[in-house]
Every structure is written in structure tokens, then in C-alpha cells.
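Bug #2210: C-alpha cell dump truncated for DinB family protein?
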Amino acid sequence: MNDKAFAQEYAKELAAEVPSTTKCLERIPLEKFDWKPHERSMQLGYLALLTGEIPRWITHIILQPEIDLATFAHDQQKTGQELAGLFNKNVNDAVATLNNVADGDLEAKFELKTNGQVVLSSTKREQVAQCINHMVHHRGQLTVYMRLLNIAVPSIYGPSADDKNFSSK
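Reproduced locally. Full output below:
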């Protein structure tokens, strides 16, 4: 599949993840942002912010040759509603960027760095291809945190035990 076709299909797949991810982010209460289930776990607010920022990585990967995790600017933690808005803006920007990809754009090298040290080097296409999986992984973690905090978990790919119409037979 050429880069343009890949990017357009990827944009559709990214858009399909928006409703359930938005519902998760909207439900994160500001007063629980510092909570974490274990000392080695991420804080809830950071995890929610990371989930909402990953679509921005897609735009950055396509337009830039690298991301340095030590200097990549993060948005400030916000309310659940603001996180959901940030996520939707990042998705819209990513979809627009994906829709402008031309053949050959994604074959360029991309590097992930930490403090200037290369952690990963691959094509932009390979990195973009990983972003939805990465976002969905962190959304899954987020739903576990939500369950532990008794925050209603929305339907994602099917009914949730918190859905009013769910019947556990």
C-alpha cells in the first residue's frame, strides 16, 4: 500500500477510536489527577494526558524528523472536559496531516530520542503505524484506573458493565 493510501486508511481508523476515547477522558475528575494504583504506576492525570496527546505525535512524526522525550512539550494537566477537547483537537490535526501525505513522505527516517540519545530509529510509516496501538494501550490502562476509582467505564468495543443496558447473563 502506498503512503497516501496508508495514511487515508489510518486516518479512518484513528477517527473510529475517537468516541470511546473522548468518553473516557471526559470522565476523569481533576481531584483524582494525582492518584495512582501503585508506586511504580503513572498518575491518573498524566496517563489521561498521554492518551490525549498521542494523536499529536502522529502530526509531529510526519512533519518532523524526531521527538526527544526529554524536551517534547506536554500540555498542562486539565479537567476531563479539557483533556477530551485537547484529544479531539490533536485527532483533527493528525487527520488533516494524514490526509496531506504524499507517496514517499512516510519512508523518511524518524528517530525517538531521550536527552539526545537515539532510543529508536525507523521509518515515519512504521512509527505512525504504532501510534493507534499505543493510544489504545494507554486508554486500556485508563479504564483499569477508572474501574479502581469507581468511575463508570464507557462502552468501547462493546457493552461495558457500567452501561445501563448491559445484562450479565
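Output looks complete on our side. The beta strands are 66-68, 109-114, 117-123. Marking as cannot-reproduce; reopen if the truncation happens again.
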